[in-house]
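quick one, 248 residues, struct below
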Amino acid sequence: AGAPAPRDAVASNNRLSGPTRAAPRFTTLTDTDSSAPPSQIILASGSPRRRTLLAWLGVAFNVASADIDETIAPGATPKAAVLELAERKARAIAADNRSGLIIAADTVVAFDCDILGKPADDAAALGMLQRLRGQAPEVWTGVALLDAAGGRFERAAVRSVVHMRAASDAALREYIATGEGRDKAGAYAIQGGGGEFVTRVEGCWLNVVGLPLCEVAARLTEFGVAIPATGPVCTLPGGAVCPRLKAD
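---
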């Protein structure tokens, strides 16, 4: 029999700081690792910010970077795109691991019927930020969880809306020169200097960073994983509770 069909879900609802968190507990899987220990969690990401965020939950995990084709199918919606890319990452890691609970995520910015990924170069970054300034683009993150041993698979997409201020070209070029946004969807990092261009966020703030802990924690719980973190698992800068948790 094949693996269970995924269950899709969608939810909508400046700096990376907040309450004191537990120190990160993770290791990096190498080419010599054939599998993760039973019940071990594997984060399918090379992103330092996703590693930091997942560690906030207090769970132990390994890290394995997924090398996949990130081409988005023409006409795909932002939701469909992030779900597909997150699933590709999870299944790529599962192919090399006989056991373990794999968590994968992918984030895009959507504006004016276009999906904005990472900029190809600084000129592309400037073009992206010029389009987004003074606007309210959406940020979508797809989250996929896959039990490599049992085949159980679930995924969800979380949507946030980011309100951007009308920054000058000079301010945009100065920011681009820092290099911070070169590997970020939409060409900016809300948790860093790019947060200066944001006036407010509707929905989950950590979703814009790249990993909506509100959704990840809920999905981990469904897989039987205990969350050691105390207090709110997903917060805004300064420690306020994520609006999505308030709505539950």
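The mean pLDDT is 85.
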